[in-house]
Design brief:
Chain B: GO terms for molecular function: GDP-dissociation inhibitor activity. The complex is a heterodimer of chains A (226) and B (587). By secondary structure, chain A is α/β, with parallel strands linked by helices. Helices cover 34% and strands 19% of the residues of chain A. Chain A has a single domain, classed as P-loop containing nucleotide triphosphate hydrolases (Rossmann fold). A six-stranded mixed beta sheet of chain A has the order 2-3-1-4-5-6, with helices on both faces. The longest helix of chain A is centred in the middle third of the chain and has 17 residues. Chain B is α+β, with helices and mostly antiparallel strands and 587 residues long. Classes of the chains: A alpha/beta (226), B alpha+beta (587). β7 of chain A pairs parallel with β6 of chain B.
Amino acid sequence: MSDTGAPKPSSSVKLVLLGEAAVGKSSLVLRFVNNDFQENKEPTIGAAFLTQKCNLPSRTIKFEIWDTAGQERFASLAPMYYRNAQSALVVYDLTKPSSLNKAKHWIAELQRQASPGIVIALVGNKLDLVSGNDESGEGAEAPARAISTEEAKAYADQEGLLFFETSAKTGEQVQEVFEAIANAIPEVALKAKGAQGMGRGLGGSAGEVAPGLSMNEPNTKDSCAC
Amino acid sequence: MSEFTLDDELLNPDVLVLGSGLQETYLAWQLSTLGLRILHLDRNQHYGGSQACLTLNELESFLTSSSQTFTDATVSRINADKLKSPRQYNLALAPHLIYPKQKLYRILEQNERVEVYSWGVVDGFFTYVPAGEEGKVGDSGVSGKLAGAIVKARKWNRRNRSSVASMASFASTETTTSTAPGEEPARDKDDGLIPRPGWNQGRFRRAPSSEEDIAWAPDISDADRATMGQFLRSTAVAPPVGPSESDSSNEAELRTLLNHLTETYPLPPSLISRITSLLLTHTPPSTLPLSIAMQKLRNHASNLATVTNVPSAAALIVSYGQLGEICQDWARLVAVNGGTNILGRHITSLTQHDNTVSATLNSGETVTAKWVVGSEAELSGLANVDTLVGRQTLRKGIYIIDRDLEQLFAFKGAEGKVQQYQLPSAAVLYYPSESVGNENPILVMARSSVTADCPKGQTVLYLSCLKGTAGVDGPMDKAVETLLDGCEWNLEAQEKPEVVWKAQWNQIVGTNAKIDGRTLRLGELGGDLSVGDEVWENLDGWVDMLAEGKGKREDDGDDGEDDDVDEEEREKRRLEKGKGKATEEEE
């Protein structure tokens, strides 16, 4: 926390993970969080969220990455999971057809529930299984690709989503996903978040962590929601 | 939901938690932190139990479905055309405020959950004073003696008004039209809400909660001002009984707030009501034990000026789901700790064994756990825990208004620094007994659209009142009408704001927890508009018991015998911690 590295503006961005169970949501995050910084952040299983910085030329984005913690398994994700999320990573398994349908479901849910300005990246994971580059012996017969790049890309374009195919296993394109998200987050959204910092801090005894200033936040959300 | 199958591991948890209200989720979360395996179910398709926050449609169907704790509901779509999409409403069953120094906030703080929520500020505590009552206020005359105070107040108000545009237009009418009979014109220049002439002669007065408030309130006579000041100072002192008293302890116990404020600190009824509005309790001052009242007042006073966003504010609210939001967060933490949450499931039978309890789910499976914990709604009729103690029934109401009631959410005082501060997004209104035909006081929590309870341009009013012998729905309507009538809300659109939707229901509150074998039924939270610290003490006890020695709970330094020392220590630590950070964030 106390590293005062570059004087670049730095902002926190909440990112939520969504997708069918076992498509590799957590693995993607662990790959991103562990790879990027030498700073030893143990892969905290059981953390409410993980954080990772993403350095852009003009600013630093600190991702607060929220995992579903398995709540999606029984369709028991709470609405508060989406709240104030400025970005979302919707993951499917490109060897599993049903997982794209599920991803579409989550995207619809995000478009309904989350902030209108939310940056959504659609990510087809497990690229290693179909690219043939990675011949790890343990996988038995490699499953065939079930979702073509074109099909998913067309859907992403139509919905205005960022689109990537990744491998959490090899790390291919993982960093790129997060950088693309960081770049896509509008400056305005970051400023609003910055203003939030100002409101922080209950006076004295109530502690230094304080209610974020959120006077306009929900409103901005709702104003375009209808 | 049968597509989800539960494997053996899930069906044999350490603790089966039923319901996802504030208490159940706290318990489940704490136990999961200690490494216990939790299966956490809720019969509804949403989290929150009696503290849930729901969309309009969800609330309508929740209230009209049968339940033991929520009964006799009526829902009316009065002007459906003006309702926005149902999903734009986040309506709370528990519209509580949160004091920064109360245990609930400290739990969030200690677990670094504070920043997860969007917080709002409560600034205004208003009391409705009917026209007749006003005459009893400070007969000594506002004129001569108070002139100085009025000038001060004018300046004060001008500053506020110039900063909040709507306030300014609001103010300009009151100076010219204060013609209500029996009113002295000078009295209109206070910071209360002034009725639109001819509509209503009652008025809403701010609760004077600090010495400055008392010093500057132009509607308090000098004599009362002194008494108020003395009383307020007395609340800061620990002993709950007035300084000059020689009551025997028995007598002290029987003493009510009303006794105290008519005998020891003689104040007129309207001022007593204004003080009572700070207590967030439904019990009228005539039956409210003094010791409890003093404790609540001390709590309020100790929280004054702790919110830097709005210096005059003492309390916070959680935007969106209020307590329901916290329930959702804590339920998620259960999952984060390896537990499993499943919505839409409940148990249909419960069998106690020597060291386990087994329960049959509505989906057919049998769960065997070491303990079963559940809310009243989840366990009713299933366990031998039906003797309820301390039961109170509230009549509650939610009214959606088709207008921003901005004056409720204006600053009390900002010294021209409005830009720097967060606008209040919630206010409390207090209607004393009999003021609108009500047997018991009506409490109103008003929340602006900034809280996301409703779409922009609307306001949500949450009403609650102890259910007495007489009906409450009429008085509740009247209370809302009084508010809508009584103020010049919008000069351009002359038509009155109106209620577009309302719901009313009975809700059982304040029941005790009860244990039977290995089944623990948690009671319903009390009826106050804030969550008392005692709730957590009890829950922590249950956590220890259920954990059965597993993963000794960390001492949070809060349970010490000497609270004052702890408090000081904490402040010191915070200040130290805060220093480095504060300077860093300053620029």
